Amino acid sequence: MALVAGVDSSTQSCKVVIMDAATGAIVREGRAGHPSGTEVDPEAWWAALQAAITAAGGFDDVAAWAIGGQQHGMVALDATGEVIRPALLWNDTRSAGAAADLIAEFGAAELAERTGVVPVASFTITKLRWLRDHEPDNAARVVAVALPHDWLTWRLRGFGPATSSSRGPVLDELITDRSDASGTGYWNPASTDDATGGYDRDLLVAALGHDAALPRVLGPEEWVLDEAGRRVGGGAGDNAGAALGLGAGPGDVVVSIGTSGTVFAVSADRVADPTGTVAGFADCTGRFLPLVATLNAARVLDAIAGLLGVDHAELSRLALAAEPGAAGLALIPYFEGERTPNLPDATASLTGMTLASTTRENLARAAVEGMLAGLGVGLAAVRDVGVPISRALLIGGGAQSEAVRVIAPLVLGVPVEVPQPGEYVALGAARQAATVLAV
């Protein structure tokens, strides 16, 4: 039995699954936590990865592995392979002004055409511009830029600072994959130019102030070796890893209801949305993964459950006791502003209140319908850029609500399936490892 391993290094924790490459059965698992915050010393990720691997029984009997992880984070390295400053994560918004500056300099339509995305504070390109403008001494030291899963793959293969690695700081051994590269803001998912690897060096220089080494982008079936001779896949960004773990294909849209919401579809065709609503990411299989993010998702249900003084099971029961449409009661769920549509200063509102409509049941129903309607805006945006959608796969903590599962098809307007809860990013990475093992 050949075993492969997949890793999900997410914002909150590191998860490892070890899988039978032939059957897909999960044999062992491990987990370790990450520190909170919007900037993190990558060494904390490295410690968590090692702890999670140990908890999963180690890699001694593993034939291949791959790492999936949180997208966009900026890991800046100097010539010795040392991390220059704590990594800025995707949820660090200090670079919002830098995003506006880049859009003003190049134009949203041109950036969408060149990279598939219009910069927002999440993306690596804006964090590099922030570094240039606010920490010029640190920016001047940058010799290489990696993303979180790139850096962890590099370290686990045995590379890194000379003081803490067996193979040394060989920066040209940094690797990544199409999905994570497409979230940087300086990579073209449609490029077939082997000389550039798809990187738009002019945009990188405009952000950082000078050129730098970047990870080599591996194709879906390409692999490298670690120091033990195991095959290593290019890995994946978290959403692409989840799509692979779920087995999503063209026509599928994945609706993830977590702290925030994401709506992403598997597409055979590249998307370039000049409005910036849909990010034209690549996936890790050679296709594309157009994605919309929302700020308000499961916490909408948390807020209304808290207001009613009930747990989530009772909130679900109340919602299902009400009629569709909640007798006209409607919740606009912008409790934290909103990203899609782009209304950062918006607030939530409750409308349609009458003596008849204002009941606990209708309020619970309006919360579920309002949250799903917000995600439905994302689904509609994906469809509006020409991506066909025939089925929605509902994942994340919010998908465990019976009311959400029942009401979702009515609000989203497509058939809905709810897969069993699982570590889909880590599973996707393990499936990638099985693929490269079989090549």
Secondary-structure blueprint:
Blueprint lengths: L2 E7 L3 E8 L5 E8 L5 E2 L1 H14 L6 E8 L5 E3 L9 E2 L7 H11 L1 H8 L8 H11 L1 H6 L2 E3 L1 H9 L18 E3 H4 L19 H8 L7 E3 L5 E2 L5 E2 L3 E2 H9 L5 E6 L3 E5 L13 E4 L5 E7 L3 H11 L3 H10 L8 E3 L16 E3 L8 H25 L6 E5 L6 H11 L3 E2 L6 H15 L1
Parallel strand pairs: 1-5, 5-12, 5-13, 9-10, 14-20, 20-21
Antiparallel strand pairs: 1-2, 2-3, 4-7, 6-8, 11-12, 14-15, 15-17, 16-17, 18-19
> Which secondary-structure class do the elements indicate?
alpha/beta
Please give the oligomerization state of what you see: single chain
Summarize the biggest pleated sheet: 7 strands, mixed
End-to-end distance, in Å? 17 Å
Number of helices: 14
- What is the strand content? 15-25%
